[in-house]
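Batch queue: ligand-bound targets. Current item pairs a single chain with nicotinamide-adenine-dinucleotide. No template structures supplied; prediction is de novo from sequence plus SMILES. Inputs echoed for audit trail.
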Amino acid sequence: MKKLTQADLIILPNIKENLFYSKLLVKEVIRELLNNNDIQIINGKITDDMVKIRISFPTDLEIGEVIIRLKKESSKAIYEKMPGLSGEVFWTDDSYLLPVNIIKKENMNESKAGLAPAKCLVTGGAGFIGSNLVDELIKLGHEVVIMDDLSSGKREYLNPTAKFYEADICDADKVEEIFSKEKFDFVFHLAAQIDVRVSVARPQYETKINVLGGLNILESCLKHKVEKFIFISTGGAIYGGEENLPANENYPTYPLSPYGINKLAFEKYLNFYHKTFGQKYITLRLANVYGPRQFKGGEGAVVAVFCDWAVNDHRLKIYGDGLQTRDFVYVGDVAEAAIKAMASDYIGELNIGTMVETNLLEIIEAIEGSINKLVDTEHYPEKVGEQRRSVLDNRRAKEILSWQPKVALEDGIKKTIEWTKSQVK
Ligand SMILES: NC(=O)c1ccc[n+]([C@@H]2O[C@H](COP(=O)([O-])OP(=O)(O)OC[C@H]3O[C@@H](n4cnc5c(N)ncnc54)[C@H](O)[C@@H]3O)[C@@H](O)[C@H]2O)c1
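Prediction returned. Tokens below.
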């Protein structure tokens, strides 16, 4: 018999040979162990060396859902109760049945239908988008590990259920050590230097993090056979043009900053790793994301900055006439798209935006609506080189991921204002 150090799942023999039989067997065993005949298996993941299952069971109050991890004694019990089993039974050091992550019905959404619980790495998981994504992954029952150097992310955004490594993606040895230890199914790569002005001032520094750091993650994915690499790229900073909008994925790419250039360069690396080594990936090109926890120095952070000034009674600075437009997408919608990308077979780029152009004056109006008062504004000269218009065509993502943005701008701004107020207190 083989002993695993970190295994927390039942392992049954001959799984590959007879998938159906194995699934049936797991169901019977769990029913017996929990003494509950009403248990239903929703879905599961079966690989060479493990069975991970998701089950539902009726309770008095609601249909709960739980991932059952069977540890030493239960594995032993299986073995004893099923003497007909041949092959190896694996176990861990602990000795009891451990239910984790009870998910309430209202927290379930269709995106997880058909998705088995997986082990996910979220680089940049202490940041704005990353931490929102981590929360959603955990709600859905996935096991999450975060790698972040806290350069702009915050410790307080870390989901306590996730395992956290304070690590720099530029440290290749550390990255490899984490991958060897954890064995991820999916990697969401969000860690990045995201300040466009910093990228202009220090392109070498930017490239070190956003290209070379990313390559450390990608190399380890390949080495440890990660199922899929989900790369969070940018639509707002990659296309550069202002004709024939909304920009679809085939729009010419002429980034106007090292930040955009490096995101594009990394996309090309992904394509190369896929074509040459078979690494599966999806790139999500995000529009201007906004919502709770946004880092005010980042790409497209105008909503965060305006909400902050409005809540703190500061005058809002507008560069130019305020009629410049962007495509503002709510962070919760972005997290949902990233999660849906896990189940898709698509390889390549997808725009994640609303396909709606909104100007800064409209953003201010929405802010005023949600704080119920007018704000003071002050106009400054237009910033040199600033893009006038930007909006993404999201039809490919809609079709491929069956995804669409759900949160209307007014509602998203309201949530952001509420969060900004909570920070002031
Ligand atoms: N916010 C937007 O509108 C937007 C738009 C398009 C793309 N993106 C992309 O989304 C991702 C997340 O951005 P965000 O807005 O949440 O910003 P963020 O700054 O809140 O998140 C980035 C995270 O990466 C971490 N990080 C930075 N350098 C690191 C390093 N060397 N090693 C480990 N961790 C490191 C930071 O500490 C932070 O937690 C980025 O890749 C960004 O380029 C954001």
